[in-house]
Specification:
- This protein has helices at 23-39, 43-51, 65-82, 84-102, 109-124, 236-274, 287-315, 324-356, 366-374, 384-396; strands spanning 3-5, 12-14, 129-132, 146-151, 154-164, 172-179, 183-189, 198-203, 215-225, 229-232.
- It is of the alpha+beta class.
- The strands form three sheets. The protein has a four-stranded mixed β-sheet with strand order 3-6-7-10. A four-stranded antiparallel β-sheet has the order 4-5-9-8, with no helix packed on it. A two-stranded antiparallel ribbon has the order 1-2.
- Strand 1 and strand 2 form a beta hairpin.
- Helix 1 (23-39) packs antiparallel against helix 2 (43-51), helix 4 runs antiparallel to helix 6 and helix 6 (236-274) packs antiparallel against helix 7.
- The chain starts with a strand and ends in a 10-residue tail after the last helix.
- The model has no long low-confidence stretch (mean pLDDT 94).
- The structure holds flavin-adenine dinucleotide.
- The site of flavin-adenine dinucleotide has 21 residues, from helix 4, strand 3, strand 5 and helix 10.
Length: 406
């Protein structure tokens, strides 16, 4: 990354890149991921990925969330076509580090300083960022398995969290918990690996999505100094940060799964062009196949459009709390983008599997991996019922839905 310091002002300026600048590095990372899967050794991928600029371009687009989103979309779309599970681990790094890079804190000097310091430490330390929302699979929806208690000079953190992707590769862990008697909070911990306070446990899904490296973790009565608290309490700043971060997550999840859909269409294309019917003509010339593939392509393109438009909406949030209304709109549209994008990806992969038939499970066909992993697309971060309810309430509100400001 090229950076220059303006000698008169002392301000660091980093050269803006066109998304095409990263194309070769994306090719390199995708090839490394293919090689890693072939060898069943993901370390091969992470070695190459960490060496590229790809995980650390957040600062380049610090005041341009849409610009950053476009590049993240390209990386995740490509990796998602190779392995949705591995791309999901990478997505977790991107959504958290992108939220840190672009959360508009300019109106508050203190927050701006600490946000920039955290971003610098990620870039200079070449740190991969994992996260957990501390949810557990208990008897009640939304249960949080961890908590933090204030102590002189910091906090004492205990408890379990069900979900942490990138668990054995992450260097910095950003996690959400509750501070006893105060409310929700976001903390960061480094180092994440070999830290006696953080026990990285077993895979959450013992036989699925293994390459997402999603594991349960336990905080073992760990002391965190005051500086580890990134945001906390029931204040507006914390609520805005949660919304902003969630919008990033809901935008990047469909990016990777739509990559899986694109790759599935590519596999169907290969099959249809290489296989002839009983009349010796390629299946790709059958009118029914042309129509089927056209329908899938339209669904895929429409889903990409809503995801990209939602990315633009997030890019319009330039200053908070001034743009809180625009953030609401972006969060709302990001929910629709996640909903439509992930459902479309699942439907496209299923349809291409029906086109290719049983060959999709013979001899290590790529569609087998895509089929097994794409079913995780719509499961999170927000579950479908939550997004449907939000939209349902909007259209059933007192004002007619013809007048909704969409
Ligand atoms: C592969 C994978 C990796 C993940 N990695 C991470 C990670 O690194 N960090 C992290 O923090 N999280 C991670 N998550 C969790 C993710 O962000 C979501 O929290 C999770 O997917 C939500 O799914 P759940 O089944 O746990 O939801 P739950 O809230 O337990 O919902 C279960 C079901 O209950 C019903 N339901 C839930 N809420 C409502 C409602 N309001 N109204 C009506 N019905 C409802 C729905 O049918 C829903 O499917 C990961 C998830 C997956 C699948």
């Amino acid at each position: 990354m090229k950076a220059a310091t303006d000698s008169s002002t002392g301000v660091r300026r980093i050269e803006r890149r066109e998304p095409s600048y990263y194309r070769e590095q994306i090719d390199e990372a995708a090839a490394a991921l293919e090689a890693a899967l072939a060898r069943n050794d993901l370390a091969v991928f992470y070695r190459v990925f960490r060496r590229t600029e790809l995980p650390f371009f957040g600062e380049v687009y610090e005041d341009d969330a849409y610009g950053l989103f476009r590049v993240c979309f390209d990386v995740l779309h490509r990796l998602g076509g190779v392995s949705p599970a591995a791309a999901l681990a990478v997505e977790n790094h991107y959504y958290v580090s992108s939220a840190i890079a672009t959360f508009p804190t300019a109106g508050d000097e203190g927050q701006d300083r600490s946000r920039r310091a955290l971003l610098r430490s990620i870039i200079e330390g070449r740190l991969l960022v994992a996260n957990t929302n501390s949810k557990i699979h208990g008897g009640k929806l939304g249960e949080i398995g961890t908590c933090a208690r204030r102590e002189p000079g910091g906090f004492r953190v205990t408890g379990k969290a069900a979900y942490t992707s990138l668990a054995t590769q992450g260097d910095l862990l950003v996690f959400i918990t509750q501070i006893e008697g105060e409310g929700p909070a976001v903390f960061s911990i480094t180092p994440m690996q070999d830290n006696p306070g953080v026990e990285i446990g077993d895979y959450l899904f013992p036989s699925a999505m293994l390459d997402s490296d999603t594991r349960q973790i336990t905080f073992k009565d760990m002391f965190l100094p005051d500086e580890s608290l990134l945001a906390g309490g029931n204040d507006q700043h914390t609520a805005l940060l949660f919304g902003f971060e969630m919008a990033w997550h809901q935008l990047l999840i469909p990016a990777l799964y739509l990559g899986a859909a694109a790759r599935a269409m590519q596999e169907a294309r290969k099959f249809l062009r290489a296989t002839t019917g009983r009349d010796d003509r390629p299946l790709s010339e059958m009118d029914g196949m042309i129509i089927d593939m056209g329908r899938l392509a339209i669904e895929y393109r429409s889903a990409c459009c809503v995801v990209l438009q939602a990315g633009q909406a997030l890019g319009e949030v330039k200053e908070l709390p001034r743009d809180a209304g625009l953030l609401d709109k972006a969060v709302n549209l990001a929910g629709a983008a996640k909903y439509v994008g992930t459902r479309c990806a699942e439907a496209v992969v299923t349809a291409t599997r029906r086109i290719i038939g049983a060959r999709a499970f013979a001899g290590g066909h790529h569609l087998e991996r895509l089929s097994q992993e794409v079913m995780f697309a719509s499961l999170g971060p927000e579950v479908s019922a939550v997004i449907e309810r939000r939209y349902g309430k909007q259209v059933l509100d007192e004002q007619t839905c013809l007048e909704l400001p969409w």
